[in-house]
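Page 47, continued from p. 46.
Same chain as before, 347 aa.
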Amino acid sequence: MNTFSKLLGLTFLLFLWISCSDKPQNANDLFSLEITNVKKTFTNNDQLAVKIISKKGNPVDEVRFAIDDNTPDAKNTISLADVKLGRRKIRAFITSEGDHYEIEKVIKVVSSNPPALYTYKILETYHHDIKAYTQGLEFHNDTLYESTGQYNQSTLRKTDYQTGKVWSKVDLANQYFGEGLTILGDKIFQLTWRENTGFIYQLKDLEKTGTFVYNNSKEGWGLCNDGTKIYKSDGTEKIWTLNADNLSEESYIEIYTNSSVIDNVNELEWVDGKIYANVYQRNAIAIVNPLSGAVEGVIDLKGLQEMVTQHTTLDVLNGIAYKGEPNILYITGKNWDKLFKIEISPK
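Result:
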């Protein structure tokens, strides 16, 4: 190799080294976010003690911390008092020698207390259509509205809950699998399972007036509302909050007890400021705080399914309706021939 070629090669290597050294370094190569009081899980009673470690000696001129998308703060203690349960993202915004970096760490927040346990007493029993694969159940005054599932069989129904008589019914097209429903104002909202489609009806005559689509929630399971907002389950541990005007997904909570996540959240009912949630394939209803996702209570409904006619297409508990009577719920299931009026009480 001649001298010119050697010089050319050395020049190229020098250029490459300078170019690489000028590139901004990855924040995680320079800094780490440490939780000094680290635990496997945290609760809303905890405060995080956080700090930044400089891995390569780079000065930390300023650092601010935040949870999820909250406003960053310079304090190195973070209260978890008002955060939602589930996987939360701790974020650090670092300034070092005029450059800005962001790093994060994920923690898990669970309920501060174990759920209270409730049992039930049957007050009355009513006839229920044994062919109704119940997916959603809700009262409007004394009229019971029901959404049923299965492809080629899905319906929206207006019924007499005391006799089981179906006053009027809308059949869904065969490609739709009906799921949860809720009534807000003069409208009924009904989900479908995997079709990414919800239907809007007039309450007065069940005339369909519109549709809506899901976004990040991939499936439709249950619906309820608090008079202003709509809540939607999707078969996971999440319950989504929907804008009642355009049905867009605005946020979600994740459902946790003090020790575990509750997934397969199904049919929903709003009861006195809480979300009552069927848990798919479990004989129980979770009482959920709609702000945090904490399971504050569990209603044990074991034995109820054995009181209906046993047959080949009998399926699980699903269907909660509330009329405003304290501690009183109306409960049924998929292809159950009975609707139960029950009173719940501490176990």
